[in-house]
Design brief:
Mean pLDDT: 90
Shape: globular
Radius of gyration: 15 Å
Low-confidence stretches: none
Helix content: 40-55%
Oligomer: single chain
Order of helices and strands: HHEHEHEHH
Distance between the termini: 22 Å
Strand content: 5-15%
Structural class: mainly alpha
């Protein structure tokens, strides 16, 4: 029951503010994360969400977003990061980067190619199992 309580509640996805040179605006991002986390009922923060900027960030930028949010929240609530990759090995690498940056969980998306090109129905399930086993 301990884990159920930890993963119940509202986990809003936050967008990352950028500077004019497209680098992460760390002070603004910290302020946003702090503000969102301050609301009653918020049980965690999601960065690198599927409909956010995840597809335009480099792997190290995704990890940096996790690091900043985790550092700002200092374990008060978990930081979850989206992981989106076309292959299992890349997804595992992204998941490991989340963990190394201080994230406590991932929001794993199935590869778009499997959804788009009609791969075998068990392929996405195996993808999730493989990433979970190695993460």
């Amino acid at each position: 029951m301990k884990n159920k309580a930890k993963w119940s509640g509202v986990f809003p996805a936050v967008l990352i503010p950028f500077k004019d040179d497209y680098s992460i605006d760390e002070p603004a991002f910290r302020k946003l994360v702090r503000w969102v986390a301050s609301h009653e009922g918020i049980k965690g923060i999601v960065v690198n969400g599927h409909t956010g900027e995840i597809m335009t960030l480099l792997p190290e930028e995704r990890a940096e977003a996790v690091r900043i949010a985790a550092d700002e929240l200092k374990g008060r609530i978990p930081v979850i990061s989206g992981v989106s990759a076309e292959g299992t090995i890349e997804a595992i690498q992204h998941a490991q980067a989340v963990e190394n940056a201080g994230g406590e969980g991932i929001l794993l998306m199935p590869p778009h190619s499997w959804l788009r090109f009609g791969m075998q129905p068990e392929s996405p399930v195996q993808f999730f199992k493989d990433v979970a086993r190695c993460y």
